[in-house]
Amino acid sequence: MINIVGIGACVMDTLVSVPRYPEEDTKLRADSTRLAGGGPVATGLVAASKLGQKCGYIGVLSDDNGGAFLKADFEKYGMTNELVTTESGYRSFTSVIWLSAETTSRTCVFDRGNLPPLKLNEKQKDAIKNAKLLMVDGNELEAAIEGAKLARENGVKVLYDAGGLYPGYERLLPYVDILIPSKEYSLGATGCKTPEEAAKVLYDKYNPEIVVITCGKNGGVMYDGEKLTTYPIYPAEVVDSNGAGDVFHGAFAFAVTNGYDYTKCCHFSSAVSGLKCTGIGARESVPDFETVKKYLKENGYEL
Q: Reduced to 3 states, what is the DSSP secondary structure of residue 115?
């Protein structure tokens, strides 16, 4: 059985490591260039798969080079492609990402491609009904809403990786159990000045089980309707921060389906995300479960 399924963006990234960002209209020699799979939900699913859960991506991919790479990348990390629909003659979702050694930040330029929107077939619907958790990220919005409704009707938890204020995102929020927005999203969606205020507003308005707001280098905050708590960022020598948020969400999905309470999920996910940043590549740098347990114990936290 596929325990975690996801609907959202799946992107072929070209990662370009540079010593620093160049000035406009100049040339700069790259340290390296490599292809990698990306996209919030797709990368989150890979993270959960590497940690030990059975995962499947529900989406449309092209039969071009990008689509072939993305399917092979899923298989590389132990995921199934049985829920992927393949279409001919379309351009894949791609991006070029510069990774600056000087600032340890990343800058992304993307091309969404021209794939048709996802329309859930019966096999994909059945997979949602029989899963433990559905991940969504605001992309493929109509299919995500349909999937979230199916999940809600069948007792399947819905985790929303809310990283962007996509048009119509408010229609998805009433079906979300686990709402994990970025700080930028939460402030933009609520008009609040602090994540703490935003967490309460989002909870009161949409009534999920939990709101967790990720705050980058400052860890994050969690609100369950009664208590507001914080979780830390764990120490790591950052080499590549690209995809850290996606990995956090995937780790959270894994932790939920592993039976952890939400506080433990926050600590676990923060540790996985931190460890991921010590290597290049959002997916290939995700640690295994035992490495995470050891890392947390070394930093004073027992699972």
A: coil
- Going by pLDDT thresholds of 50, 70 and 90, the confidence category of residue 182 is very high
**Angstrom distances, CA of residue 11 to CA of 42, 44, 67, 94:** 8, 12, 9, 5
Query: Average pLDDT of 175-181?
Result: 98
Amino acid at 111: D
- State yes or no: pLDDT of 100 exceeds 80: yes
What amino acid is encoded at 147 in this protein?
Answer: G
Beta strands 55-62 and 32-38, pairing class: unpaired
User: Percent helix, strand, coil in the chain (nearest 5)?
Assistant: 40, 25, 40
Asked if residue 26 is part of any domain, the answer here is no
- Count up the domains in the chain and report the number: 1
Per this entry, what is the length of the chain? 303
- Let me know if residue 25 belongs to a domain: no
Q: Tell me which DSSP letter residue 216 carries.
A: G
C-alpha 282/C-alpha 192 separation (Å) is 30
